[in-house]
Amino acid sequence: MPEHVIVSTTTDCEETARELAGKAVEAKLGACAQIVGPITSVYRWEGRIRTDTEWRVEIKTAADRAGALVELIRENHGYDVPEIIATPIAGGSAEYLAWLTGETRP
């Protein structure tokens, strides 16, 4: 089981992306977050192929905080079925990963 993960989601506007990132860091469910965008997403929804502009939010967290972070995103997201994906961090700077863990402790 990984000790650290990146939880990512997409939103329909930069303001919503900033709000989600801020709430995650404020709640100590994420050590930091990056917002990437605008990006173009192509997907099937309700039987139609759609193309929309979105912003991606990538939140770094300790693995034991990921479940609560996913719930925070779900509760504060405007989409019916938001993209929420957790990707394990396989390695990295020991100092950074220690900081990441420390920033996600209540």
TrEMBL record:
Q: Which Pfam families match?
A: CutA1
SUPFAM superfamilies for the chain: GlnB-like
Which InterPro entries does the protein's record reference?
A: Ion_tolerance_CutA, N-reg_PII-like_a/b, N-reg_PII/ATP_PRibTrfase_C
Give the top-rank taxon of the lineage listed in the UniProt record for this protein: Bacteria
Which Gene3D superfamilies does this entry report, sorted A to Z?
3.30.70.120
The record's section on PANTHER family has: DIVALENT CATION TOLERANCE CUTA-RELATED (PTHR23419), FI09726P (PTHR23419:SF8)
Please report which protein family the annotation says this sequence is part of: Belongs to the CutA family.
- Protein name per its UniProtKB record: Divalent-cation tolerance protein CutA
Organism listed in the record:
Amycolatopsis cynarae
